[in-house]
């Protein structure tokens, strides 16, 4: 029998993590998507430190509208926090999820706000 959905996602996640590596100048933009919420972090893998984070649970992100709209707002919020920290370029880590739907919406929101992938 084949892999379960979670096992498959974890395999993809490990495969992406081999290539995607964050530094202080170009951190990794890691996306975690649950059924209700979406989270984004800027991570410096050299030090193992989170530089900035945004999620749909934050107060500055309006959690009304569709999940796609909320994901777009989270993307814009993480881009604003990145600019405050002096970060312009990031390595995108979709966390084993397909680049589609909410993950894509978050990425587009971050690009609109000025982050470069």
Name the features.
single chain, 117 residues, alpha+beta, Nucleotidyltransferase, domain 5, four-stranded mixed β-sheet, 3 helices, 4 strands, 38% helix, 20% strand, globular
Question: Secondary structure elements and their pairing?
Answer:
Elements: H1 5-19, E1 28-33, E2 38-44, E3 49-55, H2 67-84, E4 91-93, H3 102-112
Parallel strand pairs: 1-4
Antiparallel strand pairs: 1-2, 2-3
Summarize the structure.
The protein is an alpha+beta fold. The chain is 38% helix and 20% strand. The longest helix has 18 residues, at 67-84.
Summarize the structure in words.
- This protein has 117 residues and is an alpha+beta fold.
- The protein has helices at residues 5-19, 67-84, 102-112; strands at residues 28-33, 38-44, 49-55, 91-93.
- The N and C termini lie far apart (37 Å).
- It is built from three helices and four strands; from the N terminus they run αβββαβα.
- The protein has a single domain, classed as Nucleotidyltransferase, domain 5 (2-Layer Sandwich).
- The protein has a four-stranded mixed β-sheet.
- 38% of the residues lie in helices and 20% in strands.
- α2 runs parallel beside α3 (102-112).
Intertermini distance: 37 Å
State the CATH topology: Nucleotidyltransferase, domain 5
Number of strands: 4
Q: What helical percentage do the residues reach?
A: 25-40%
Largest sheet: 4 strands, mixed
From the spread of the alpha carbons, the general shape counts as globular
Q: By helix and strand content, what is the structural category?
A: alpha+beta
């Amino acid at each position: 029998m084949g892999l379960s959905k979670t096992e498959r996602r974890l395999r993809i996640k490990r495969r992406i993590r081999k290539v995607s590596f964050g530094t202080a100048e170009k951190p990794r933009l890691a996306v975690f998507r649950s059924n209700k919420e979406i989270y984004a972090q800027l991570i410096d893998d050299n030090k193992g430190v989170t530089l900035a984070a945004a999620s749909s649970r934050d107060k500055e992100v309006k959690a009304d509208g569709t999940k796609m709209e909320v994901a777009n707002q989270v993307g814009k919020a993480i881009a604003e926090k990145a600019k405050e920290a002096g970060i312009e370029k990031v390595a995108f880590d979709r966390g084993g999820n397909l680049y589609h739907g909410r993950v894509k919406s978050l990425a587009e929101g971050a690009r609109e706000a000025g982050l470069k992938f």
